[in-house]
Design goal:
Number of strands: 9
Radius of gyration: 19 Å
Order of helices and strands: EEHEHEEHEHEHEHEH
Strand order of the largest sheet: 7-6-3-8-9
Oligomer: single chain
Distance between the termini: 46 Å
Helix content: 25-40%
Shape: globular
């Protein structure tokens, strides 16, 4: 359970509490955020962080049958074992993109260590070996665990660019504000009933190629 905040303090950026040293804390946080992607020292490569449900694994039935006038869908979707609904075409495209030199994928999903099973079932190349980050629940301070995990991970990994797909980003304003502030974290919330669309995967490829071509 999160500890009760001190009522004499006022909320700061990302929910931090600020007392007499609030301004110093804010400046320090700004410096830390600026270092996440190596602004003082250029990072290398691109990290891609994947949620599963609502991104790779759809909520609900095949969208082709539900939204026939939507022209930004994959040509087919596959349902398996009452748990999985995904597009094999999407998986093929993602495999091709992740094979670009300098790209490293990660799991950032509440499936956590079970994400490897999902990856093997849908055919994501090498997904059993992808590192997974802690993602369930909230931190003791009350922060969305996925947000805390990606912040901590990027401070160590320091890629040139990070791409983060999670349908819950649509309701996580602190996380969106953080990515907007950094500029080098591309965060996107797909429609969970559809998952990643062809245009969104194309955009991922364009972002990756724009960075991996830099030397």
């Amino acid at each position: 359970m999160a500890s009760r905040p001190d009522p004499t303090q006022s909320p700061g950026p990302d929910g931090a509490r600020m007392g007499h040293n609030g301004h110093n804390q804010t400046r320090r946080r700004g410096r830390e955020d600026a270092m996440v992607l190596g602004r003082s020292r250029p990072g290398q490569g691109v990290n891609v962080y994947f949620d599963i449900d609502g991104v790779l694994n759809l909520y609900g039935p095949d969208p082709l049958s539900q939204t026939p006038d939507d022209h930004d869908l994959w040509s087919s979707y596959h349902s398996q074992s009452m748990m999985l609904t995904y597009s094999p075409e999407m998986i093929t495209r993602i495999n091709e993109i992740l094979a670009i030199p300098g790209v490293t994928p990660f799991w950032l999903t509440t499936w956590e260590k079970e994400a490897a099973w999902f990856g093997s079932q849908v055919g994501l190349t090498g997904a059993e070996e992808w590192q997974w980050l802690q993602a369930v629940g909230v931190t003791p301070s009350g922060q969305w665990q996925k947000f805390a995990s990606i912040r901590s991970h990027l401070k160590v990994a320091r890629p040139r660019l990070a791409i983060w797909f999670d349908d819950d980003l649509a309701i996580q304003s602190d996380a969106r504000a953080w990515t907007d502030r950094l500029g080098a974290v591309h965060a996107h919330a797909p429609d969970p009933r559809i998952g990643l669309r062809p245009s969104e995967v194309d955009r991922m490829e364009a972002l990756i190629r724009s960075q991996t071509s830099i030397r």
